[in-house]
Design brief:
The protein has a five-stranded mixed sheet. 36% of the residues lie in helices and 30% in strands. With 148 residues, it is an alpha/beta fold. The protein has helices at 56-71, 86-92, 101-114, 131-147, and strands spanning 5-15, 28-38, 43-54, 78-83, 121-125. α1 packs parallel to α3.
Length: 148
């Protein structure tokens, strides 16, 4: 049965080798985790996907896009999205400008997917210490370990 409103909680992990070294690559292997909840915060699904080699912002957007694609199986109504990536939330809400062309492509894809949700899409930031944020991070880490 389709729900009038659902919530998505999404997170990505991105493991960048030698991140502490000067001149290191800004890319690492990434995965994402997604929780789909009804309006009463009951879990409808726990999902994850391996994303491959990405920068941290690319991984966060990859998780968002995966979540937007899969959420339409549960609702085409109102959608709340919760992320610990303040950058992505502020960009999606129109508060931060997009400067990188490769990120603009991902932003445009996510904005295009918003059209599936007739009740609109709202983005919210939460700290990575929030319990649902920790669960999505666990899902992402488990998926990362399955592929590495």
């Amino acid at each position: 049965m389709p729900y009038a409103k659902i919530k998505l909680v999404t997170d990505a992990c991105c493991h960048i080798p030698n991140a502490h070294l000067v001149g290191r690559s800004g890319e690492g292997f990434a995965a994402c985790g997604v929780l789909i909840l009804n309006e009463f915060d009951q879990t409808l699904a726990e999902l994850c996907q391996y994303l491959g080699e990405k920068t941290v912002p690319q991984a966060e957007y990859g998780g968002l896009i995966f979540a937007l694609e899969r959420a339409s199986e549960y609702s085409r109504g109102e959608l709340e999205i919760w992320m610990d990536s303040e950058l992505v939330v502020r960009q999606m809400n129109g508060n931060y400008a997009l400067r990188k062309p490769h990120i603009k492509e991902l932003y445009d894809k996510a904005k295009g997917l918003e059209g599936r949700y007739l009740g609109g899409v709202k983005y919210f930031h939460h700290p990575e210490t929030a319990s649902l944020a920790q669960r999505t991070h666990q899902l992402a880490e488990a998926e990362y370990r399955r592929h590495r």
